[in-house]
Recover the amino acids of this structure.
């Protein structure tokens, strides 16, 4: 199957982040970058689908400046066959603009299946994939936790709050990928070596007008340091109160 | 020339020819493996041969089988001189060493033949008894060939019997022909006195023939039997690196730039000729497997099997010699099969804790661990096939510089408020600290291990040592990745660490983790990192010896302490005494007790070889096995010198005997520091 | 004066709490900008129209009711088409960033060629632009984003807004779907209801985990009861107890087990060894119950109770049940 996977280069989320001098971005000094987690699941899904089918081609597409080529190579080292960089000076905060640029590229590709991660771990908008589907006029399934092809039909599962849906849909289609699917494979050294020779095309990104801008980036209010709120069963009422009002998880 | 002589020469030439053809073939098969140089340090290698092969140093580690085997082997050596004499006799009738040697020497030689024949016969008798009746466990398993063993013992016995019979009957036929020094044969001659001289002479002659034919037959049986070790073991010990030259336990260097089809070994062609020679030399004695912590606790891994499988697969791949590749699988097609998966399974390879007990025990210096490591490299680098628990560890090392998901920024948190300078701080103040205290990832992040780190830092401060830590600039040196087979990730991390160390012109490093100690001290040189690395037990012992540590003068608590030997400190680096001495000096009235398996026989805690990051789901837990052994000493305290051992022992001891403490030797010393 | 279109989510014909959140947010947004109309668009099966009173009570000037037999659950294609068709005249189209909302919002945005500001914590109008705050970098950085209408599609993170009463007289209008749900290309073949089925550790918003402090395997019942009281909780365990066979290995949370990031992690009788912490450290809220005040788990816990888990957990369970019932 001809599959396209749209990926994003994001920093390692375990890092301690600082705001850059501009105030509108995160300071990238010293950060390690990799494929955004859900996008990596999507790459893994594509690879597994084609492995199971015994044939197929996976193309990864990434929008951004030249540094994203490193990220595309990571996907190639996992096993994707081809990479495309949509070159742009930076990745805008406007997911519709991103979607338009991606749709323009995807339109010509003849892809049967187009995968995205359900959202990128940095911007966390979760829009580009579904928007691209809309722009391409393709059926779209968001946040799939399972994706299989049974008797020529595409079958997926999505998790709702407290329940799950099983769905069927025709191809070509766009699917955004959630957790629950197998762990992205660790590239072998052989894969890393092979990736260096795989084709990586660079094309300009047709972003168009960018209508969402970052006013400011800031740190969230300091989480109060953990505390022992009491001893024994008597502390329970206070715990309930805190969980309800402060943590808001109850 | 008489007809008999002609026949003998003919048989001799045939036997010798056949044997040398087989030798050529076997040597040729070694070329299936990759080349490697093993001729460095020839004198040290020769010394190893003398010590291990000839003097049977490792064989004697078994107090029962040791003398038995030494008896047979030394007997073989001595009797070989006699065998040569007999064969020359076949070509030149009437030949005897008496014509060449001064009389006194000849008498000694002649007696030795007689005496050793009896000795070897007795040893063979005991060997039969041991194998049949005592039936030691380690002689079973891994498709070992009991039949082969009995046949060999039988032949050796027959050789001794024919030799003694030859001389005894000669003594009956012509007493003057049998020297007085041949006490045994003469005694036997007395017993056989009833036989007529003519018959006796004939029987003696028949035994001569039998003996010589047996020798030639035995010689040619060797390539088809595990007894091949008789020929190969001396070479194997010579070419082996397991007892030096060079540092023990250092994994092979790997050139990742080389444009190779695959990395590591999945089949015999990717092993080296030395690995294949190891395959020839295995006697199936099972000492390695009997010492393997994985095997002891019920895992599939058996170091002996690894070696036997290597030999079997080699024979299969070349369509080779008979008995050696026989096993009860029946005829198999060689094409499309590999050592990996068809013989040795992944589970076996991942069960290894790299404790080196197998290598320590092997009497013919086989390096089982080398094969395991090369196959792990293949699994990870070529196929990305490994236990899934390792992936988070790999990814974390890549991203965070630590095999656990802890933030690099948190690394020096233990040092807060302790006044421990970092290299960066020292350099900024124009200082060049003499010693770098390499803390390691466990010591930096693990709550229990941090206590050891703090204890050692306090000791260093109390002695006024001019030291610093790398603090947040410290990253993992990659040893876990290397042990797990991920050479690529390892080299990335190691080179990074070397760069940092060199930037601060570090010369001397002290560390409380044996894995860090071994990696930085012994393996970093492969990548150009040259530092003097000292383990904290050695460092503390030196300080104690120099009386530089201000200890309290009271006699301390009356503890019964069992010290658990760390594999990477002990078998890898021969550090056994420093921790013990440290304990004795720090706790003058302590009683030191040893578990049954201690020092170079110490049982692994189970965390090495990357297993700290893996699930243990088969059999008994290794740390449980070791804990029981340590607790059986009656100790109220278990002392360790490694944070991995600490974790493994702590978990297990706490669940069995809550009152027994597990402490690091640094903590013991720190607790005894004068507080003023 | 901007008008706001709020999408009020239902499930099985019943309004969800997030629907009230959306209307509340829309009302606040409109009022802060000087007043304007808030219309609430509700999809539901026939009969839903009669249940829309709460929307008016929370500030909807008008309720647009779109009923169809298929709307017992979400149908993204026809719903997004309908929303887009009704968006004319509104400055902001506001949805909840629930699973359904996250599916609908981008589609509406593309259909209207309108910028999307999703998963927001707060929304305001400023000089004609929409300004939101939105968690980024897995919540470690808060971004303030601006978009110029018209319109702008905004989705609000569930629980970020507390529904507030702002009574308006109920005025409903029935509308037809702009596209036939039957023509939707993605079809739901089955709905698997969650309760009763064991929640996966990776998905559960709440995880109750037990360790050695529970003393024996039988006491894990207390953990299970607590999970049950929460309703949407999964049960986890430490390596120590899975090794001892109290729980299956698949329940193990930690370095070599599952790495989890629930909204709430309750660690019962767990001391907090490095490997376990590595598995749950990123949980949003951590509660620890352990009898050792020095246990490492208390360093990462937001709230800790020192004491015997066997005594405390049953009390906690009862309290949670009571709290859930009154919600």
């Amino acid at each position: 199957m001809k599959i396209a996977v749209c990926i994003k280069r994001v920093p390692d989320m375990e890092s301690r982040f600082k705001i850059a001098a501009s105030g509108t971005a995160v300071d990238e000094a010293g950060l390690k970058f990799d494929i955004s987690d859900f996008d990596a699941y999507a790459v893994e899904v594509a690879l597994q689908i084609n492995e199971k089918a015994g044939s197929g081609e996976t193309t990864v597409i990434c929008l951004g400046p030249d540094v994203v080529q490193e990220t595309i190579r990571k996907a190639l080292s996992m096993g994707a066959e081809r990479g495309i960089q949509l070159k742009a000076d930076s990745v805008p905060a406007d997911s519709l603009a991103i979607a338009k640029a991606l749709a323009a590229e995807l339109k010509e590709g003849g892809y049967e299946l187009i995968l995205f991660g359900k959202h990128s771990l940095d911007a966390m908008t979760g829009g580009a994939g579904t928007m691209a589907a809309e722009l391409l006029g393709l059926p779209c399934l968001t946040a799939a936790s399972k994706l299989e092809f049974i008797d020529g039909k595409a079958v997926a599962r999505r998790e709702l709050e407290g329940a799950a849906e099983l769905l069927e849909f025709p191809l070509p289609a766009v699917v955004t990928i959630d957790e629950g699917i197998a762990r992205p494979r660790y590239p072998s050294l052989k894969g890393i070596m092979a990736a260096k020779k795989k084709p990586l095309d660079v094309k300009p990104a047709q972003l168009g007008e960018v209508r969402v801008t970052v006013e400011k980036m800031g740190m969230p209010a300091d989480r109060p340091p953990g505390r022992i709120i009491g001893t024994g069963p008597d502390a329970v009422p206070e715990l309930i109160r805190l969980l309800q009002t402060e943590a808001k998880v109850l | 020339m008489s007809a008999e002589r002609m026949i003998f020469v003919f048989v001799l030439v045939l036997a010798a020819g056949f044997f040398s053809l087989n030798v050529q073939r076997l040597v040729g098969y070694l070329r299936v493996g990759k080349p490697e140089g093993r001729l460095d340090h020839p004198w040290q290698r020769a010394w190893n041969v003398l010590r291990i092969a000839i003097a049977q140093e490792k064989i004697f580690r078994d107090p029962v089988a040791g003398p038995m085997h030494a008896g047979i082997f030394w007997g073989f050596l001595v009797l070989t001189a006699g065998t040569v004499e007999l064969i020359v006799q076949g070509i030149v009738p009437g030949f005897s060493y008496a014509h060449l040697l001064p009389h006194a020497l000849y008498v000694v030689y002649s007696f030795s033949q007689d005496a050793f024949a009896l000795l070897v016969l007795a040893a063979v008798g005991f060997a039969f008894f041991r194998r049949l009746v005592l039936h030691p466990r380690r002689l079973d398993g891994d498709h070992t060939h009991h039949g082969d063993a009995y046949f060999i013992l039988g032949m050796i016995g027959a050789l001794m019997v024919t030799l003694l019979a030859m001389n005894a009957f000669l003594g009956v036929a012509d007493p003057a022909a049998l020297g007085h020094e041949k006490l045994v044969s003469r005694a036997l001659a007395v017993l056989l006195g009833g036989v007529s001289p003519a018959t006796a002479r004939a029987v003696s002659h028949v035994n001569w023939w039998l003996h010589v034919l047996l020798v030639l037959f035995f010689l040619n049986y060797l390539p088809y039997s595990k007894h091949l070790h008789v020929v190969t073991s001396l070479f194997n010990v010579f070419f082996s690196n397991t007892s030096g030259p060079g540092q023990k336990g250092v994994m092979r260097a790997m050139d990742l730039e080389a444009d190779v089809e695959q990395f590591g070994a999945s089949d015999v062609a990717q092993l080296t000729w030395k690995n294949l020679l190891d395959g020839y030399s295995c006697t199936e004695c099972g000492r390695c497997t009997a010492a393997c912590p994985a095997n002891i606790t019920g895992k599939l891994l058996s170091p002996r099997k690894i070696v036997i499988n290597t030999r079997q697969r080699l024979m299969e791949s070349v369509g080779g010699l008979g008995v050696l590749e026989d096993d009860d699988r029946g005829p198999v097609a060689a094409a499309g099969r590999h050592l990996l998966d068809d013989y040795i399974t992944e589970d076996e390879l991942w069960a290894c804790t790299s404790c080196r007990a197998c290598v320590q025990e092997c009497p013919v210096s086989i390096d089982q661990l080398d094969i395991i490591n090369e196959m792990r490299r293949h699994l990870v680098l070529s196929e990305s096939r490994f236990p899934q628990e390792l992936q988070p560890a790999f990814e974390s090392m890549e991203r965070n510089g630590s095999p656990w998901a802890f933030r690099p920024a948190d690394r020096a948190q233990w040092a807060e408020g302790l006044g421990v300078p970092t290299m960066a701080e020292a350099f900024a103040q124009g200082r060049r600290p003499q010693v770098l205290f390499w803390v390691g990832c466990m010591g930096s992040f693990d709550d229990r291990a941090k206590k050891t780190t703090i204890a050692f830092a306090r000791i260093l401060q109390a002695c006024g040592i001019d030291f610093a830590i790398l603090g947040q600039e410290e990253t993992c040196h990659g040893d876990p990745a290397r042990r797990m087979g991920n050479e690529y990730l390892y080299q990335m991390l190691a080179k990074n660490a070397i760069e940092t160390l060199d930037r601060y012109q570090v010369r001397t490093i002290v560390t409380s983790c044996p894995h860090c100690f071994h990696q930085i001290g012994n393996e970093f040189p492969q990548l150009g990192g040259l530092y003097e690395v000292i383990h904290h037990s050695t460092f503390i012992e030196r300080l104690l010896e120099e009386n530089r540590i201000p200890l309290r003068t009271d006699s301390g608590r009356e503890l019964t302490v069992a010290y658990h030997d760390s594999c990477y400190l002990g078998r890898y680096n021969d550090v056994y005494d420093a921790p013990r001495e440290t304990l004795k000096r720090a706790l003058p009235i302590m009683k030191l007790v040893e578990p049954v398996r201690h020092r170079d026989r110490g049982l692994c805690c189970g965390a090495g070889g990357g297993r700290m990051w893996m699930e243990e789901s088969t059999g008994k837990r290794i740390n449980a096995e070791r804990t029981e052994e340590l607790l059986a000493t009656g100790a109220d305290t278990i002392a360790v010198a490694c944070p991995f051992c600490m974790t493994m022992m702590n978990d297990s001891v706490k669940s069995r005997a809550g009152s027994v403490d597990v402490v690091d030797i640094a903590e013991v010393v720190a607790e005894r520091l004068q507080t003023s | 004066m901007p008008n706001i279109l709020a999408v009020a989510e239902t499930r099985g014909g019943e309004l969800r709490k997030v629907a009230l959140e959306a209307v509340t947010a829309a009302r606040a947004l409109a009022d802060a900008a000087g007043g304007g109309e808030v219309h609430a668009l509700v999809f539901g099966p026939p009969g839903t129209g009669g249940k829309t009173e709460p929307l008016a009570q929370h500030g909807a000037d008008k309720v647009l009711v779109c009923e169809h037999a298929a709307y017992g659950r979400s149908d993204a294609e026809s719903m997004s088409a309908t929303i887009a068709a009704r968006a004319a005249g509104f400055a902001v189209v506001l949805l909840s960033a629930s699973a359904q909302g996250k599916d609908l919002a981008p589609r509406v945005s593309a259909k209207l060629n309108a910028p999307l500001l999703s998963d927001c914590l707060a929304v305001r109008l400023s000089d004609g632009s929409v300004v939101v705050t939105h968690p980024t970098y897995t919540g470690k950085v808060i971004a303030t984003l601006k978009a110029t209408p018209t319109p702008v599609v905004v989705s609000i993170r569930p629980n970020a807004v507390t529904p507030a009463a702002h009574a308006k007289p109920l005025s409903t209008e029935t509308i037809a779907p702009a596209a036939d749900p039957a023509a939707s290309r993605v079809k739901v073949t089955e709905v698997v209801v969650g309760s009763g089925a064991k929640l996966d550790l990776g998905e559960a918003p709440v995880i109750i985990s037990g360790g050695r402090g529970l003393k024996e395997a039988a006491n894990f019942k207390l953990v299970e009861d607590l999970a049950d009281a929460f309703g949407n909780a999964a049960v986890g365990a430490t390596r120590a107890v899975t090794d001892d066979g109290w729980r299956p290995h698949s329940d193990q949370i930690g370095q070599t087990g599952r790495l989890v990031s629930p909204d709430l992690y309750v660690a019962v009788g767990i001391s907090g060894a490095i490997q376990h912490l590595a598995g749950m450290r990123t949980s949003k809220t951590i509660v620890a119950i352990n009898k050792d005040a020095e246990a490492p788990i208390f360093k990462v816990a937001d709230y800790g109770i020192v004491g015997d888990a066997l005594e405390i957990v049953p009390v906690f369970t009862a309290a949670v049940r009571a709290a859930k019932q009154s919600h």
Observations:
- The two ends of chain B are 98 Å apart (CA to CA).
- Chain B touches chain A through 21 residues (CB under 8 Å).
